Amino acid sequence: MTSRLTVVYGVRASASEIKARAQAIAVEQSVEMPLSAIHDGSILSDIVGQVRAIDDRGNGAFDVTIDLAAATIGSDAGQLINMLFGNTSLHDDVVLSSAILPSEMLSAFGGPSHGLSGLRERVGAKGRAMTCSALKPQGLGAEDLGKLAFELTMGGLDFIKDDHGLADQSYSPFVDRVRVCAAAVRKASERTGHPTRYAPSLSGSYTDMERQLGLAREEGLDVALIAPMLAGPSNFSALRRNHPDFAFLAHPTMTGARVSPVLFAQLFRLFGADASIFPNYGGRFGYSLLTCKAIAAGLLGSFGGLAASVPAPAGGMSLDRTPELLDCYGEDVMLLIGGGLLSAPRERLAAEAGRFVRAVADHCYPRLSTP
Amino acid sequence: MTSRLTVVYGVRASASEIKARAQAIAVEQSVEMPLSAIHDGSILSDIVGQVRAIDDRGNGAFDVTIDLAAATIGSDAGQLINMLFGNTSLHDDVVLSSAILPSEMLSAFGGPSHGLSGLRERVGAKGRAMTCSALKPQGLGAEDLGKLAFELTMGGLDFIKDDHGLADQSYSPFVDRVRVCAAAVRKASERTGHPTRYAPSLSGSYTDMERQLGLAREEGLDVALIAPMLAGPSNFSALRRNHPDFAFLAHPTMTGARVSPVLFAQLFRLFGADASIFPNYGGRFGYSLLTCKAIAAGLLGSFGGLAASVPAPAGGMSLDRTPELLDCYGEDVMLLIGGGLLSAPRERLAAEAGRFVRAVADHCYPRLSTP
């Protein structure tokens, strides 16, 4: 018996077609050729994807459960994505709903180097949620971004990250930005006494990203933002392995709408995301409360002994939602408010950030009553 | 006036919502924060995405044309994808339909190093289409893949590529596979006198891919298969720049169904794909004839002076469709038949490949009559 992944696909099809469609997906995501042309019995039994179940969800929607061989993947992140969804992503009537991975695979990838407890430690956040904001808009120069970073740090935030759109643009080259913003955060941190962390956004090729991590390290930084689906999942995984001193916040850009965001968050955790950003319910993306709770559970819950990854809901959030969000997510969360803080006039920015910090610090988490 | 990209999104919305949706996409794909919080006039005028047109296509479908600032992208491939579709890819009611890029951007990326004419030269294919097949299934060891490569080369094919699912698996490690298959192709090539090229599939991190290219180079190879959306577009771009002796066949795995395949093929050409594989019409993917013709035109047509990239239709194709496909695509094409050839018994494989080669060589292309 070879080790297998159990993968569920949501498929739109007619009842008469679904069996053939399910089988076609099983073949596409494994050997990708007619089974009649395969004469090696062990490939047919051990490598070809196997349809395990087809559940009719009504109205032409089916859940198709397929077992894929772990041997086709090994421990390469890009190849895992390739075998889970690669060619099938081209079909507009199939979504990738969920996957159960064998435990050897979980330990082979290794998960976060620091995770929830490591990030808490970096910013001294015990028994409370963590706070985060973003540097933007796109188009500001390094000096202006640095001023924002200074004010946000003066407010006592835990993390300040680059907007995921900040790359290595001529109006704000990475090297200038990281120096100015790191210095601003350092300076303000000395005044507040709070160890605010600045997380610059990595972009470009793997080589570019290693150079950027080097620059960040020179500035005393130890957290970075990365978009695994732009970097290439294997490159993210390699960065995590080769730079264990850094914690990584994963950004969901280009994850698309046809892979379950719960699964994507789990995959990012698997590849090494210490925190995983996702669009919060009630913001400008259409995620439901249920989806967001499931994402948080997928990042925090038991996962083959891997460290927990911090859920970081974001996207169109405002300060006055802090109590509601903390009631919803509990204390194991990093609330990310970007535009909602930056909408304040510059001279009020530190005070607004401070209000956010206090709202989080003062929150009384609902607990189960004990007798 | 700053340099801009003109991007068209297909959006599903009600007539009353579409204006706000269009504006939201323009903001999301540029500054990603409330415009009321931006006080810098030059960011509002030069950086924020601008909605240029909203065309009602009926039944709740709209084409939204948005201009994005080229300055937010520079010449980084990952950042181009990020600004074209990044966060908006998370919305399931938006597709990325097309993009017109400024000419400076086209020259900055540079396109294919070899392209159509370079690939033709490598295999001595003048005035005819090129032929390609794939090594599979997943699960075969290096020795067995080498035997297939030998037989396919004996048939006189131009290109033999690894299946895009072949990575660095324990049953067929890259280093073994590339040595055995390169040797098999070399040996058979000496017999046929035809310079068949073997293109191994690159996988893993950028560092892994560079090592793989090094191994391939040691074996005298000069063509490789890459999946840009798994590698990370910036890494593909960097490999192309740093390894100009190699030609790259691009594979569409993980390009998803919500970016126009025509645009994706053009982006792959932009980043440096010498040939671009796409699912052929009438195969096992749902692409129409019209879509496939548009992909081919996007790869071959005028594009800021960039070399043409070879259209390589594939996916569930059979030998007997060769005349139809050549009538459709003309001679500037690489026909890729994988499973359709491999379905032949091993002892007939070289003969089947030979039939494919002859069908392509003997084809009489329809030409416009001249007086």
Automatic annotation (TrEMBL), chains A, B:
It comes from the Bacteria. PANTHER family: RIBULOSE BISPHOSPHATE CARBOXYLASE, RIBULOSE BISPHOSPHATE CARBOXYLASE LARGE CHAIN. GO terms for biological process: carbon fixation. SUPFAM superfamilies: RuBisCo, C-terminal domain, RuBisCO, large subunit, small (N-terminal) domain. The lineage of its organism: Bacteria, Pseudomonadati, Pseudomonadota, Alphaproteobacteria, Hyphomicrobiales. Residues 116-255 form the Ribulose bisphosphate carboxylase large subunit C-terminal domain. Gene3D superfamilies: Ribulose bisphosphate carboxylase, large subunit, C-terminal domain, RuBisCO large subunit, N-terminal domain. CDD domains: RLP_RrRLP. InterPro entries: RuBisCO, RuBisCO_lsu_C, RuBisCO_lsu_C_sf, RuBisCO_lsu_N_sf. This is Ribulose bisphosphate carboxylase-like protein 1. One of its GO terms (molecular function) is ribulose-bisphosphate carboxylase activity.
